[in-house]
Structure formats: C-alpha cells, structure tokens
C-alpha cells in the first residue's frame, strides 16, 4: 500500500504531514511521492488567503484526477469550507477522475486522531493489508524535520482567518515533543524546526518556550534546532540570550505585517514599530551572523499613501535579510473584510512592486555582507547531476543556501562540511529566498 503526502501553506502543515507519515511507516505502509502512483494521497490544505483557498480546491481536484484510490483532505481550507466558505462536495472534488476515488475529510476537531482515521479508512474502503513500512527511493523526509509544539491562536488580528480555522491555542506536552524528536533522531534526522500557529505561546503550567528549548537541548541529541516563526511580543531576552548554545540556529522569522503604527493598531497587532526595531537590534547585537526575516501585508484597508511610505521607510531601517510580501486579502468572517476604505487592486499591485524592488536591493546587500563568512552546511539533496560529479544543496545554521559539487560516488545527504560563503552563493540565495 503506497501513500503520498502533499501540503500547501505553512510549515505547521508540513509538520503534521511528517508526523502522520512516520506513524504510517511504523504501521507498515510505504511512503512514496505523488509521481509514484500512490494508492492514498493526503493533502493538507491552506486557507490563509483567498488565493490559498483557491489553490487548495484546485490542488484537491488535480490530485483526485490522478486517480488514487483514496484522497484524504485536511487543513485550514477544509475547515473553512466546512464552515461555509466556498465549499466543494466530494463529487466536485473527484469530477475529473476516471475511476472511483474515495474522499475522506479530517476536520480540526478530529486532527489529533488523523493517523487512526486514515488507517481505519484504508481498512474499511481499500481492504489492503500493509506491507513492510519504508520510503521509496524517490520519497525522503527532509533533513530538516518540522516538529509541531502548539496549535491555534488567541490573538484577534483583524485580517486573519487562521484563528477561525485552527481554534484557540493549545500546547503539546513537553514530554511528547521530546519523545517525537528522539524518535526522529533515531531515524537519522539531523535538524529540527519547532512549529505551530503561535510557537511563542507554548506553555506548560508556568513554563514557557525558553524552558521547552532548554529541555530539548538537555534531553535529546539534537544537532540543530530552529524556530519556524515567532511573533514580536513573544520574542523576549530570556529567549534570544539562549542562542549562545551553538545547537540553536541563528535565524529568526518575526512577522511585523506593517511599518506604520496606525495600520498596526487597525490590525490589532501588539508591538509598535519602535519596540519591534529595538528587539531585532538587540538580537543582532547578541547573536553573531544572525539573519532575520519577516512578513508584510500590502494594502490593508485605510492604508493611505503617507502610511505606506512609513512602511517603505521602515523596510530601509530594519534591513531584513528577507521579507515575505503579501497583498491584503479580505477573508470572510474577519473584521478587516468589513472595514471601509478598501484599497483598489491596482494600488496594491503598485505598492507591492515598490516594496519588492526595495526588498530585493536590501536582500542583495545583506547577502553581499556574508561573503567570506564560514558556514557549517548540512547537505540535503542533489540538485544537479553532471557526469562524475553531483551538485548538492544544503543550508548553513543561519539559513544560507549553498550549492557545491562533489564526486558522484560521494553520498552527502545528512553530512556536514565547513564551507565559505562566496559571491556565487548570492545568486543561489536570490533564487531560493528564505522559505
């Protein structure tokens, strides 16, 4: 029985997929890629924007058209459709399939039991016993393993539908997290990313995220540990001062969303611009070679030209290593969708290109400053073959991507070498920006 996984959107979806995949391998099922004609495909969807919803529906139809015997749908788009946002029924999802495809949906309330639901559905509808659990030669979990530590969000950001799809904050127990990391280490995985909707909101009694990180460092043999994304109000000195431990990777993704305090207030974001800048300045002072990225929304309702120019000035001051830039998308059920003074698409488009041009300039400057920087690179996969040599890609601890050629008979996956970042690596990183 061959099972494939696919996800759209955030790393939390990838973490959930990886956890289920490991459980299914342990149960005796074979993990393959989408191209290997799987019997079952698990699609974890995204609903963060209207475009993400559209892509999720399109992807579900496309995967069903490939005629797996079963398509499992889960994730934010599935929950939002269940709540009434542009729903599609099973017949519509499978409308282009030439053979019968069983559609199974896993909603948020049932997600903790996702593995059991999938196993029960396989046994009920497909009647195939598992074989020896394994990965196909084409299917490999990444060397960077995503570990879910939290789900849900208690914030009230006016533009966001994720809290509607994911519910309120709920932290996983520290022992469960540590056990999962140790299980992954036993499988040969090298690097771990702690992920969730609100990673910084993790708690266990009076213990907080920095306590969890200390437990992981003390009770596992983890070689590299990262944070996926953390809100500025959760980014505190007791956290970043831990980064003297070289197992903690010096890269932070800290969403800001706007460079204008008035817009941030309308978004109900909790950290003003000066406070945000103080935090990233302190992090840069504390941690050598740290790289910082962020999220920005273009065209929030009521954003005037003057407010937008404040964001442009902020981008220059912050000098991010990378920025994920989004046009505002009015999400059903959110406060921002009903706000007056919605920004016309053509103005969003113009502002997006103005910001992207500046971000690209700063991104290149930041990468140029990395030339001659020593990099401890964890090699992941082959990106190009060239006769007697293969080109491998990997990432440094501060998330610089490097490509290097090695002899074809030298298997680099999971190994670490010391490299020097040079000018040729700039274009590599411009092509593969922080993901």
**How far apart lie the N and C ends?**
32 Å
**What's the helical proportion of residues?**
25-40%
DSSP helix count? 14
Give me the count of strands: 20
Mean pLDDT: 94
Strand portion: 15-25%
Protein model, in words:
With 435 residues, the protein is an alpha/beta fold. It is 36% helix and 23% strand. It has 14 helices and 20 strands. It has helices spanning 11-26, 50-65, 76-82, 90-93, 114-126, 162-166, 174-186, 209-219, 237-240, 261-267, 273-286, 305-318, 345-368, 424-431; strands at 2-7, 30-32, 40-45, 70-75, 102-106, 134-135, 144-148, 150-151, 170-171, 191-195, 203-204, 207-208, 224-227, 251-253, 291-298, 322-327, 374-386, 389-395, 401-407, 416-420. It has a six-stranded parallel β-sheet with strand order 5-4-3-1-2-6, sandwiched between helices. Strands 19-18-17-20 form a four-stranded antiparallel β-sheet, covered by helices on one side. It has a three-stranded parallel β-sheet with strand order 7-10-13. Helix 7 (174-186) runs parallel beside helix 8 (209-219), helix 12 (305-318) packs parallel to helix 13 (345-368) and helix 13 (345-368) packs antiparallel against helix 14 (424-431). The chain is globular and about 60 Å long. The two termini are 32 Å apart.
């Amino acid at each position: 029985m061959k099972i494939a996984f696919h996800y759209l959107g955030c790393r939390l979806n990838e973490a959930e997929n990886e956890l289920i995949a490991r459980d299914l391998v342990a149960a005796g099922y074979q993990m393959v890629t989408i191209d290997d004609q799987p019997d079952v495909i698990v699609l974890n969807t995204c609903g963060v924007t209207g475009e993400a919803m559209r892509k999720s529906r399109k992807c579900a139809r496309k995967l069903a058209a490939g005629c797996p015997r079963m398509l499992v749908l889960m994730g934010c788009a599935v929950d939002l459709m269940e709540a009434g946002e542009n729903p599609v029924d099973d017949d519509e999802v499978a409308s282009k399939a030439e053979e019968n495809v069983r559609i199974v949906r896993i909603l948020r309330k049932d997600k903790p039991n996702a593995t059991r639901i999938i196993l029960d559905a396989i046994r009920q509808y497909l009647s195939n016993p598992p074989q020896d659990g394994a990965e196909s030669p084409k299917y490999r979990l990444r060397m960077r393993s995503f570990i879910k530590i939290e789900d849900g969000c208690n914030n009230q950001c006016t533009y966001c539908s994720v809290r509607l799809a994911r519910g309120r904050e709920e932290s996983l127990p520290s022992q469960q997290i540590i056990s999962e990391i140790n299980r992954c280490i036993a499988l040969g995985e090298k690097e771990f990313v702690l992920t969730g909707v609100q990673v910084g909101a993790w708690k266990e009694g009076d213990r907080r995220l920095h306590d969890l990180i200390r437990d992981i460092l003390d009770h596992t043999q983890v070689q590299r540990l990262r944070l996926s994304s953390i809100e500025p109000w959760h980014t505190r000195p007791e956290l970043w001062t831990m980064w003297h431990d070289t197992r903690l990777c010096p890269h932070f993704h800290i969403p800001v969303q706007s460079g204008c305090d008035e817009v941030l207030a309308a978004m109900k974001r909790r950290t003003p611009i000066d406070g945000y800048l103080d935090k990233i300045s302190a992090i840069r002072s504390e941690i050598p070679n740290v790289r910082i990225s962020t999220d920005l929304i273009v065209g929030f309702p009521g954003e005037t030209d003057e407010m937008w120019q404040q964001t442009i000035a902020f981008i220059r001051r912050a000098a991010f290593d990378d920025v994920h830039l989004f046009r505002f998308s009015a999400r059903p059920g959110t406060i921002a969708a009903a706000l007056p003074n919605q920004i016309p698409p053509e103005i969003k488009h113009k502002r997006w290109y103005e910001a992207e041009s500046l971000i690209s300039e700063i991104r290149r400057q930041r990468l140029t400053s990395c030339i001659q920087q020593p990099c401890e690179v964890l090699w992941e996969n082959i990106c190009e073959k060239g006769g007697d040599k293969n080109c491998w890609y990997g990432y440094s601890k501060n998330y610089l991507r490097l490509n290097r050629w090695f002899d074809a008979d030298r298997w680099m996956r999971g190994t670490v070498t010391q490299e020097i970042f040079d000018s040729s690596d700039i274009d590599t990183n411009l092509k593969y920006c922080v993901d």
